[in-house]
């Protein structure tokens, strides 16, 4: 078999006009340059560093990373060229090595020259090495500035990132305090362990089943996710886009690999590594500025979310949940309850919004309800729902609250008119019903409100991508006369991005529902999906 030409060209690219304008561990990108004559300005080539025949040969994690790169590059190319659309084309028939063409379609390009004929337009912008190098320089500057949070598109249009108003109350000290709180709870649990509990070993091949985990497995899992988040923060500070873990299959794979990796380690070795990883995590968070952590518009790739959410997910919410489950499995119920109560108090004392306190309270209610403390659960449930009203609908079907269903006090809470007045309207549509309606006379407009990187990897066939953070600015693209269905991955039912988007659209007078179970449920039932080849 002949050698793949793309596998041998990576080292020669720096000598070409513009050189390598972007690269990460998986891909590299350069501007296309013809051997002779001028080249079409705005034609980028993305290639994988390792030999991959096609998109289907990527792992889920690699596909997600490629999608993120495509989204970043498309935005940069559109901003720096003034293009009205960016095409992403994949052929790899002549050279069986995954490579994607990103092509800028300029305004007033005649329709007969759209897509693969775009370079044949006689008036298309053309350039030689000097013009290509200049464009690549602008693209590199844009990519760097986007991650730092200060972007001004080359063609003079767009919003300055990082210039939005913020809460003036410093939150970084409170975030760090919450991370230290979690570590203290971990140390407290360790101090209450017997030698037998320290030395117990989990069941093989049960890396995703917490019932089979021992204390060592929980501690190893927590340190691994902190380690991954620390790496992500370092990636962010290098000006790159980190991976995200929205695919539960990938999450389970990481959990399983972590279980296997640490199964034969001693408790002392895991404890020492946990301390080392925590210190590295804290150091990395301390390097982040107040604005980087808390401004929802600072990082374009977060699509309107805050970086602090990622930090707290893996430094507070996940480990506290793990520690509570671990304590309960050890029969240390009182210790588990004390941890949850201390967590609520710590979040109350922080500057996190009331919704954060509501989540902490609701989680505590669930632990009470599933562990024989219905009175305590019912005592705290009203405040949890008042602070996080979207959890009212969740509580009606939450299996953790099953023991409370027949209690009149529970029914009284859920029918309290004062509380119900605070609850946003929620209307879910089952995947089967959506599939049927899409074949009807007036099919709904399906809006994927996830980030563009998630959308590119796979989405409901025919869905348009309007990330939640950009929804308000894109309302003009959504016709009022057509029903709308929003969706996301729905990992946090009751407060998911899809439901938040639906609430925003209802306020604007739209007839809108949300896909129950989100994209995972749609895909699981084998309804039509597609990957994006056009951005």
Automatic annotation (TrEMBL):
Residues 440-531 form the Rhodanese domain. A motif (Histidine triad motif) lies at residues 97-101. Coiled coil: none annotated. This is Rhodanese domain protein. PROSITE patterns: HIT_2, RHODANESE_3. One of its GO terms (molecular function) is catalytic activity. InterPro entries: DinB/YfiT-like, DUF1706, GlpE_sulfurtransferase, HIT-like, HIT-like_sf, Rhodanese-like_dom, Rhodanese-like_dom_sf. It comes from the Bacteria. CDD domains: RHOD (cd00158). Residues 35-113 form the HIT domain. SMART domains: RHOD. It holds the Pfam family DUF1706.
């Amino acid at each position: 078999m002949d050698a793949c030409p793309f596998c041998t060209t990576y080292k020669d690219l720096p000598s070409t006009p513009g050189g390598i304008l972007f690269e990460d561990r998986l891909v590299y990108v350069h501007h296309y340059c013809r051997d002779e004559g001028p080249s079409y300005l705005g034609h980028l080539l993305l290639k994988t560093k390792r030999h991959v025949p096609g998109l289907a040969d990527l792992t889920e994690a690699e596909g997600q990373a490629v999608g993120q790169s495509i989204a970043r590059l498309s935005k940069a190319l559109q901003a720096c060229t003034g293009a009205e659309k960016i095409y992403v084309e994949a052929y790899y028939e002549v050279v069986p090595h995954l490579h994607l063409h990103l092509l800028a379609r300029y305004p007033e390009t005649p329709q007969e020259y759209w897509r693969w004929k775009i370079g044949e337009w006689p008036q298309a912008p053309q350039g030689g090495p000097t013009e290509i190098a200049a464009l690549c320089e602008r693209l590199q500057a844009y990519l760097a500035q986007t991650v730092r949070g200060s972007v001004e598109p080359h063609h003079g249009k767009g919003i300055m990132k990082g210039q939005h108003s913020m809460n003036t109350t410093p939150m970084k000290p409170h975030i760090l305090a919450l991370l230290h709180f979690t570590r203290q709870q971990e140390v407290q649990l360790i101090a209450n362990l017997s030698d037998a509990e320290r030395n117990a070993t989990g069941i093989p091949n049960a890396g995703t089943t917490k019932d089979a985990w021992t204390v060592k497995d929980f501690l190893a899992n927590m340190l691994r996710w902190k380690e991954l988040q620390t790496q992500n923060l370092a990636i962010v500070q290098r000006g790159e886009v980190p991976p995200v873990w929205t695919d539960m299959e990938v999450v389970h794979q990481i959990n399983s690999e972590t279980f296997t990796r640490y199964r034969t380690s001693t408790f002392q070795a895991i404890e020492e590594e946990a301390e080392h990883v925590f210190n590295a995590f804290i150091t990395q968070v301390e390097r982040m500025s107040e604005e980087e952590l808390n401004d929802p518009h600072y990082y374009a790739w977060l699509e309107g979310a805050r970086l602090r959410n990622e930090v707290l997910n893996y430094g507070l919410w996940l480990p506290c949940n793990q520690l509570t489950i671990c304590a309960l499995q050890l029969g240390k119920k009182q210790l588990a309850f004390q941890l949850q109560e201390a967590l609520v108090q710590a979040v109350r004392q922080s500057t996190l919004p009331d919704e954060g306190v509501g989540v902490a309270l609701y989680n505590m209610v669930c632990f009470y309800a599933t562990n024989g403390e219905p009175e305590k659960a019912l005592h705290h449930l009203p405040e949890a729902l008042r602070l996080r009203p979207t959890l009212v609908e969740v509580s009606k079907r939450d299996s953790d609250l099953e023991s409370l269903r027949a209690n009149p006090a529970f029914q009284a809470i859920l029918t309290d008119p004062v509380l119900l007045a605070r609850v946003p309207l929620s209307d879910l549509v089952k995947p089967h019903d959506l599939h049927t309606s899409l074949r009807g006379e007036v099919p709904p407009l399906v809006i994927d409100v996830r980030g563009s990187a998630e959308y590119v990897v796979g989405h409901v066939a025919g869905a348009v991508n309007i990330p939640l953070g950009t929804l308000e600015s894109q309302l003009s693209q959504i016709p009022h006369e057509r029903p709308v269905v929003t969706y996301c991955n729905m990992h946090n039912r009751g407060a998911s991005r899809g439901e938040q988007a639906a609430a925003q659209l209802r306020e604007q007078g739209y007839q809108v529902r949300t896909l129950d179970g989100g994209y995972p449920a749609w895909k699981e039932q084998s309804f039509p999906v597609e990957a994006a080849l056009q951005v």
